[in-house]
Amino acid sequence: MLIVIPARGGSKGVPGKNIKLLNGTPLIHYTIKAAQCVFDNKHIYVSTDSPAIKSIAEQTGVDIPKLRPSYLATDKSNSRDVILHAMDQFKLSNNNEDPDLIILLQPTSPYRNHTHIREALKLYNDDIDMVVSVKETDSNPYYVLFEEDENNFLRRSKESNFTRRQDCPKVWEFNGAIYIINPKSIRAQPIGHFQKIIKYEMDEKSSIDIDTPLDWKFAEFLGK
């Protein structure tokens, strides 16, 4: 089992956010401590290119033996490449064998906790590609999302005759908190190509994903 916590140093929306203090605690500590409530430190892999993040993360007791290569820490780097690199590092110290399970926990979700992780794990089996945490979206494509047609007129993203939002089918969005991934699936293809995905639903507060200064202020408010 391999728990990957990706934390590059070059965040743009909120500079230095992974180690910025959220109500007195470095942001990345929330995720590491949630993971530590479920898994031994030996399974937790913090993937970072930043010596500062490495130092702050290791205050929790996790060991970060080496930094992530710089080519995997650019704006164009994707989660799959980071996961594959972490898996390769795992193989070096485990008889050249892949982990039997990958769990990706992004540090931008401070209110995802150990209970969420345990509940999501119960949904996983080897016959699927992934269990992913979601929240019900406010932007329902049957009701409030529109696209421009060839004449620049707005049309519903999904054609429908619904007149009340509550009559629309429920639509889910990934909230970025938990990805429980089949290692064979991630070796074979990008996450966006997965077909066998099971949702783990989370509430709105637990789904907070910090990407902008406004997200940060809201997370601070909720934490207080």
TrEMBL record:
Q: Which UniProt keywords apply?
A: Nucleotidyltransferase, Transferase
Domain of life, per UniProt, equals Bacteria
* GO MF assignments: N-acylneuraminate cytidylyltransferase activity
Which range is the signal sequence, renumbered to this chain?
none
Check the record and name the InterPro entries matching this protein: CMP-NeuNAc_synthase, Cytidylyl_trans, Nucleotide-diphossugar_trans
Q: Name one Pfam family in it.
A: CTP_transf_3
Ranges that cross the membrane: none
Q: What is this protein called?
A: N-Acetylneuraminate cytidylyltransferase
UniProt organism field? Nonlabens marinus S1-08
